[in-house]
Each structure stands twice: as C-alpha cells, then as structure tokens.
Amino acid sequence: MTLTVRLPEPLEDALEKYSASHGVTKSHVVQEALAAYIVSSAGTGKKLGDGKVSDTYRALKKAGLIGCFSGDGVSATKDVVRRKILERLKRPR
Predict the structure, then answer these.
(1) Are 18 and 10 in contact (CB under 8 A)?
(2) DSSP 83
(3) Please, which pLDDT band fits residue 18 given cuts at 50, 70 and 90?
(4) Where are the beta strands (DSSP E) in the chain?
(5) What is the C-alpha radius of gyration for the chain, rounded to an integer number of angstroms?
C-alpha cells in the first residue's frame, strides 16, 4: 500500500538524516514508528478509530473511486488526485 504523509520540514529533515545515517529507508523508519505507536496505544486505552466507515468513504466507494488508481511514480498532491478523479469521472462506464 502506498501512503502519502505531509511532514513539517524539520521532521522531514530529521527523517532524512536518520535514514541516511542508519542505512535504512524512510519507509522502513515510518513503518517501524507506526507499528510502535499502534502497539503502545493498544494497552493505554487510546482509541485508534471506531472501525466505522465514514460517509465520505462510502460516497467515494459508490462512485468507484476507492482503489481505482495505481501508483505511477507521481506524487499524490491534491492537484494530481483531483486530475485523476476528474479523468475517472469523465470516462464512460
């Protein structure tokens, strides 16, 4: 799965330096940090989500927009996502 995350510049710089100095990918560092966060949250009673699907997700799924794009090496900026959605909606079904 591909996930795009916006990071503040200082955190991005720190991630870049850490990854380079430890010889690991940024993806690896983020995966490990997320796993540690989820594991540590599990025992604290913190909610990580209620398991319910949002109305927005339902609408996008009904429109056929969930899972309809594959990665093409282009950053998933808002403009790119908007363009892809418009292209998808203009296609005959």
Answers:
(1) no
(2) H
(3) confident
(4) none
(5) 17
For 12-50, letters b (16+ CB in 10 Å) and e give eeeeeeebeeeeeeeeebeeeeeeeeeeeeeeeeeeeee
pLDDT surpasses 70 at 26: yes
Are 65 and 88 in contact, with CB atoms under 8 Å apart? yes
CA–centroid distance for 6 within its chain:
9
Question: What DSSP assignment string belongs to 49-66?
Answer: --SPPPHHHHHHHHTT-T
Backbone dihedral angles phi then psi of residue 9, each to the nearest 5 degrees: -55, -45
pTM score: 0.46
Task: With both helix axes pointing from N to C terminus, report the angle between 9-22 and 26-42 in degrees, rounded to the nearest 10.
Answer: 110
